């Protein structure tokens, strides 16, 4: 029984650590862009799954990252409907060796809605099916 409890504890700890793993979206010698799933609770007590981003400047200089940003919900590009290709361009400025990381309190680019966990009548039923960050340009 003691071995069973130890194994269960190890498996739960392994799952918790895996859930906090960052996935690299894009990188080179100057920067790294990563994403991670998190669960956030609203003031009303509803739980939502988000993707948060982390931008890392790997240089000792100020850098600006500009990139194409597309959010796809239920296989439809939501941000593509905003207008021209230029409207999908986002940018982030980073100080030397700075790490900019999203969390539950972030807004905009740093925290992207994935899906509603809590089932309620006013919940958005869509689900993020793809997140595209490409055409990255770095300016030093």
Describe the structure.
The chain has 140 residues and is mostly beta strands. The protein has one domain (22-139). 13% of the residues lie in helices and 48% in strands. The chain has one helix and nine strands. The protein has one helix spanning 2-19, and strands at residues 23-27, 31-41, 47-57, 63-73, 76-77, 89-94, 99-101, 111-116, 128-139. The strands form two sheets. Strands 1, 2, 3, 7 and 8 form a five-stranded antiparallel β-sheet that branches. Strands 4, 5, 6 and 9 form a four-stranded antiparallel β-sheet that branches. Strand 1 (23-27) and strand 2 (31-41) form a beta hairpin. The protein is globular. Mean pLDDT is 85; it is low at 6-18.
What's the arrangement of secondary structure elements?
Layout: H1 2-19, E1 23-27, E2 31-41, E3 47-57, E4 63-73, E5 76-77, E6 89-94, E7 99-101, E8 111-116, E9 128-139
Antiparallel strand pairs: 1-2, 2-3, 3-7, 3-8, 4-5, 4-6, 4-9
Assign an overall shape. Answer: globular
Unreliable residue runs: 6-18
> What percentage of residues falls in helices of 4 or more residues?
10-25%
Count of individual beta strands:
9
Q: Major sheet, described briefly?
A: 5 strands, antiparallel
Query: Could you state the order of secondary-structure elements as H and E?
Result: HEEEEEEEEE
Please compute the radius of gyration using only Cα atoms.
18 Å
Distance between the termini: 59 Å
Total number of helical segments? 1
Q: Into which percentage range does the β-strand content fall?
A: over 45%
Please, how many domains?
1
């Amino acid at each position: 029984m003691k071995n069973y409890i130890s194994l269960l504890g190890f498996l739960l700890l392994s799952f918790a650590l895996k859930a906090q793993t960052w996935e690299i979206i894009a990188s080179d010698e100057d920067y790294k862009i990563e994403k991670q799933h998190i669960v956030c609770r609203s003031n009303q007590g509803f739980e939502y799954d988000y993707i948060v981003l982390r931008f890392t400047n790997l240089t000792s200089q100020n850098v600006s990252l500009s990139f194409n940003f597309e959010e796809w919900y239920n296989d439809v590009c939501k941000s593509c409907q905003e207008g021209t290709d230029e409207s999908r361009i986002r940018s982030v400025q980073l100080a030397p060796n700075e790490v900019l990381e999203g969390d539950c309190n972030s807004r905009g680019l740093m925290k992207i809605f994935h899906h509603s966990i809590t089932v309620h009548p006013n919940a958005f039923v869509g689900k993020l099916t793809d997140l595209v960050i490409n055409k990255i340009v770095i300016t030093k």
